[in-house]
């Protein structure tokens, strides 16, 4: 797998391999324009994992389909900038994107059974991806498929390479999808809720596998999920999305231990703690996510926020908050919220105490 090593050396260590700046993804529908992503910015370095978390409809998957160029060009308006190793993706032609997909960037989808063809063997599907991007012979592609199945932990890969997807368990199908995504040594891997349909033991195995492969190849990973428990296991950095916007981002420990945004706090309150008391009641976030046809003015979370009235002056419902660091936190840890640091310390502490008591 020398290709990855050769490519990886020409970008300065620590520099952003992927840079997304003010990305907007809007869809035209019969009912109007859906603002699926509305001004999103983030960066990702090689060898690091960015966890993107949020409820369904928050814009997580749409963001990454736009990065890969898998959106419907006839109905989608894109704006902003997406740079992959200095290459602008939003203005790239379909032919350019086809060369990049699978080769420089790749994606693991949630439903492996739906993503794999039932009419072709697993090995043939992995090998075809390899042949398309490298020009390898069928024999070379088969050998590569066996090698990749071995790397992702499939037992007897030289035998299972000729099996069909329905002959694999759910966890093994997901491993096969990972093998297909990594067969050309992509430098950016996007994993769209790849563990959602798996039991917790297989989930842990898949996350351990991704970490091991990342350490081996230095891959940059975007991991999309709605589960902060998964994020706590795999991500280096966290980006929290709500209503098509980033409401908080920072290092994993910072975001999960000391959240700055009420939505992040609500997500944490709605999941059980692995190291806290077992009898603490969960606190689901009231209400439903906003319509992106007619999103709320100001902070899009304010209709569901327990603290909006405490800010006063109707500020949350009229002014969009800036994404900025908070006093007492690192420059990398930022949130888009009108609460002052003093209010946050007071109200968030009360909220946490109410959960315990």
UniProtKB/TrEMBL annotation:
Source species, domain of life: Bacteria
Keyword Methyltransferase attributed: no
SMART domains the record matches: AAA
InterPro entries named in the record: AAA+_ATPase, ABC_Ni/Peptide_Import, ABC_transporter-like_ATP-bd, ABC_transporter-like_CS, Oligopep_ABC_C, P-loop_NTPase
Subcellular location: Cell membrane
Membrane topology category: Peripheral membrane protein
Record-level GO cellular component terms: plasma membrane
Keywords: ATP-binding, Cell membrane, Membrane, Nucleotide-binding, Transport
Keyword ATP-binding: yes
GO BP terms: peptide transport
PROSITE patterns xrefs: ABC_TRANSPORTER_1, ABC_TRANSPORTER_2
Domain ABC transporter: 20-268
An annotated Gene Ontology molecular function: ATP binding
Family: Belongs to the ABC transporter superfamily.
Entries under PANTHER family matching the protein: DIPEPTIDE TRANSPORT ATP-BINDING PROTEIN DPPD (PTHR43297:SF2), OLIGOPEPTIDE TRANSPORT ATP-BINDING PROTEIN APPD (PTHR43297)
Protein name as it appears in the record: ABC transporter ATP-binding protein
Taxonomy of the source species: Bacteria, Bacillati, Actinomycetota, Actinomycetes, Kitasatosporales
